[in-house]
Automatic annotation (TrEMBL), chains A, B:
Keywords: Carbohydrate metabolism, Isomerase, NAD. It is an enzyme of class 5 (isomerase). NCBIfam families: galE, PRK10675.1. Pfam families: GDP_Man_Dehyd. Signal peptide: none annotated. SUPFAM superfamilies: NAD(P)-binding Rossmann-fold domains. GO terms for molecular function: UDP-glucose 4-epimerase activity. Homodimer. It catalyses: UDP-alpha-D-glucose = UDP-alpha-D-galactose. It comes from Thiothrix lacustris. The keyword Isomerase applies. Pathway: Carbohydrate metabolism; galactose metabolism. It comes from the Bacteria. This is UDP-glucose 4-epimerase.
């Protein structure tokens, strides 16, 4: 599909955002990034440009809660759609500082949607999460499963889904894709962009990678007595490049016009791996040891979570293509060449 | 209880807000009002002062979404607690304009709570609604019943309840009362303050009152085939002065310190009346005819909703005292003397 349509990517300097910029450019879209850099580096955009053969990526440093800046962007740029990644994402931090999460995520999204409405831009792809399924009664998880949340981060995602649903009901001309991500891992195969968490990583893969390079002594595995094949938690890890392509596919589906205007779609592989599966695969891919210790379960963690990805294939013709070995190899490649992330 | 503690009443110029100011002053509290007047008149505050024997009511005209104004108020005034009424409240409008509801109600409350946190004010009484019970599986409704919402207005109330619950979990020093109102009606017995809806009233009582004065020809009764005693919807109507006193009682309970720091309380009478009960009672109280016509049900309306008010009595020693005749007489008194509301 040939297009030069311009996409505003909020949070475009972040982990998933930067990979999505690469895939958008590869598919012929133009990108404009808005990011407040509270949890990301502008260096990622320099590298996106490098990977994509662009001189630079148009970039606005600022916040989605700033209506004046949003008005400026929508006036200066002819935006076809927004892909909305901007938001805080650490579950534990959200429990400590709930108001920051409701302000950044929920109030921020309201501010963004109001600006879009003012400027007649009514296409949005929203970065939701499998966390909205809470503790699912069964797996694989299908999109119609009941929704719930166990922490402010998850509740903020759920609230935004509800607001977007209400917006669609009020004005069915909106095209809204709610993409529920499972567990993004990996990095671009170039090794130039990847996940660069500030401080101690909250997620498994960057933590494993830091153990592999010797930055941490060992991995704490939270719980070895879950009702899973080896007692450790099972998740649906998905390569970030596959995930990024899912966003492009959602936009292309809206452009074709052969999907409902309100899309709720899981982006996962459909395959569950345990923590120990990941440790083993990463050790093999990196040729390094990944020492671990089983410790107590972490409050709020569930035993098992993986997607039924059939609807994404059916509606937006998207399917994850990269396997566990590639997820580990690409993470390792990024980590090895960027031991300090973008710094 | 003697106190001169100062209470910031957001939305204090509105219907429930103005009556609550009167009861706060009568109980020895000081009040400061913040209101953007988007749906209320400053005349109500002049009358609150008159009723209460005050020269005037300290008033800031502005919005809870304005952090600069909030900082100014909290600096200039030594606020003990906030009573938070400010918000949009029309169910039908919320379906048409969901973003306005999420902005005013949800983002507005986040802004207010963040300002309170900045200034170390951690007591809040929040104006919630029985709408958070959705369509209850049984009546009377108790506070532990499951929560749900069927429109953006209700969802905004539910989201705020959830945010306040998360805030309490993050910092249990917060004192938070979620008061779930049933159906406020009536007016101050002086006839000086009352409900003054802009445009066509959304609620039953002000509509009936306008039919009684001849402003409208007849009342449309939405549905005559509900499974209730006379086929019309049953609600728990509560006199606004009783409701206002509930807020004072919640503050007094926090001051005594003999209640949990997170209070979830129904404010209702425990008595359900049908639409036709209300029509009959109002006709008697006013000596006027109230013609009505049964028309189709309204989407989203439920058959029957009334409170179990026992918990309020147990925890904050509050109980509704005014009966249906007083509700109708006081509404009529207000309507007769103020046929154009505050204009």
């Amino acid at each position: 599909m040939q297009t030069t349509k311009k996409i505003l990517v909020t949070g475009g300097a972040g982990y998933i955002g930067s990979h999505t910029c690469v895939e958008l450019l590869a598919a012929g879209f133009q990108v404009v990034v808005l990011d407040n850099l509270c949890n990301s580096s502008p260096e990622s955009l320099r590298r996106v440009a490098e990977i994509s053969g662009q001189a630079s990526i148009p970039f606005y440093e600022g916040d989605i809660r700033d209506p004046v800046l949003l008005d400026r962007i929508f006036k200066e740029q002819a935006i076809y759609s927004v892909i909305h990644f901007a938001g805080l994402k650490a579950v534990g931090e959200s429990v400590e500082k709930p108001l920051e999460y409701y302000d950044n995520n929920v109030a921020g999204t309201v501010s963004l949607l109001q600006a879009m409405q003012r400027h007649g831009v009514r296409n949005i792809v929203f970065s939701s999460s499998a966390t909205v399924y809470g503790d699912p009664h069964t797996t694989p998880i299908q999109e119609h499963f009941p929704l719930s949340a166990t922490n402010p981060y998850g509740r903020s995602k759920l609230m935004i889904e509800e607001m977007l649903g209400d917006l669609y009901k009020a004005d069915p001309a909106w095209k809204i894709a709610l993409l529920r991500y499972f567990n993004p891992v990996g990095a671009h195969e170039s090794g130039k962009i990847g996940e660069d968490p500030q401080g101690v990583p909250n997620n498994l893969m960057p933590y494993i990678a830091r153990v592999a390079v010797g930055q941490y002594e060992y991995l704490s595995v939270f719980g070895g007595d879950y009702p899973t094949q080896d007692g450790t938690g099972v998740r649906d890890y998905i390569h970030v490049v596959d995930l990024a392509k899912g966003h492009v596919k959602a936009l292309e589906a809206f452009l074709r016009g052969d999907v409902p205007n309100l899309l709720l779609i899981n982006l996962g592989t459909g395959q569950g791996y345990s923590v120990l599966d990941m440790v083993k695969a990463f050790a093999e891919a990196s040729g390094r040891e990944v020492p671990y210790r089983i410790v107590a379960r972490r409050a709020g963690d569930i035993a098992c979570c993986y997607a039924d990805p059939a609807l994404a294939e059916q509606l937006i013709h998207w399917k994850a293509e990269k396997n566990l070995v590639e997820m580990c190899q690409d993470t390792w490649h990024w980590q090895k060449h960027n031991p300090q992330g973008y710094n």
